[in-house]
Amino acid sequence: MPELSRCAPHTITCKPWSLAECCEKFATAGCGGISVWRDAIEPVGIDEAARIVKTSGLKVPALVRGGFFHEADAIDVNKTCIDEAAALGAEMVVLVVGAVPGQPMDEQHKRVADAIADVVPHAEANGVKLAIEPLHPMYADTRSCVTRLKDATNIAEHIGHPLVGVAIDVYHVWWDPDLAYEIEMCGRFDRIFAFHECDWRVPTRGFLLDRGVIGEGCIDVAGIRGMVESAGFEGLHEIEIFSEEGWVLPQDQWLERNLAGYKEHG
Questions:
Q1: Is the separation of the CB atoms in 239 and 255 below 8 Å?
Q2: Structure confidence at residue 2 (pLDDT)
Q3: Which stretches in the chain have pLDDT values below 50?
Q4: How many whole angstroms separate alpha carbon 97 and alpha carbon 131?
Q5: Cis ω for the linkage preceding 65 (within 30 of 0)
Q6: Could you give the CA distance from residue 171 to residue 61 in angstroms, rounded to a whole number?
Q7: Which phi-psi region, left, alpha or beta, contains residue 190 (left: φ > 0; alpha: ψ -120 to 50)?
Q8: pLDDT at position 1, please?
């Protein structure tokens, strides 16, 4: 059974709460960390957000999210993300890389690799890691041309900088028949920076906003966590759940349900 001290819920998991409420509630529950979405920063600004997070005593695995490298202002936006992560004391920025419908995937991967390489010097200057997150193939149209862990690892290895690695989210990779091997290879290159937990409901009622509490779906979360940790990952386990059903519940109840799922099945 994993300890709550290894658990870091994302602010988006309890989206109705403010950043201050998330920090207070997660810390009181015994969680060890919090990953911060940029929409939680926006109402208070980065200076106040940094004060809130740093006084909470919680570790900050990640700022979520950068990427979307097909957009014209992507380099500037990602540099801002790096600045915000540094201000929060976050270990990394998670990158959802974006996609261009109809463009060959190899061309898109090259564009992503070149764009990440362009922001690496800024990441290095701020001591912030960059974690490429592969997304489920259902998002290959506009959200991410990187749909397999293999693709993310290859891009990271092509860039060849120790601050560039991957974020493994069980929601996006559980289906991959080569997952065990790809996790092992990613770990061999020391590229596993983050591990995100949730579940895939059966049947799912929506591909974006119907993620399940750990243990109520078909993903072997504990099994994948075992693979990731056998490959050398020692970081926090991040609970990242987008759920319209969960967001309308009393959030204390929703958090308790998520933490119970984590302790039993995470």
A1: no
A2: 86
A3: none
A4: 10
A5: yes
A6: 18
A7: left
A8: 73
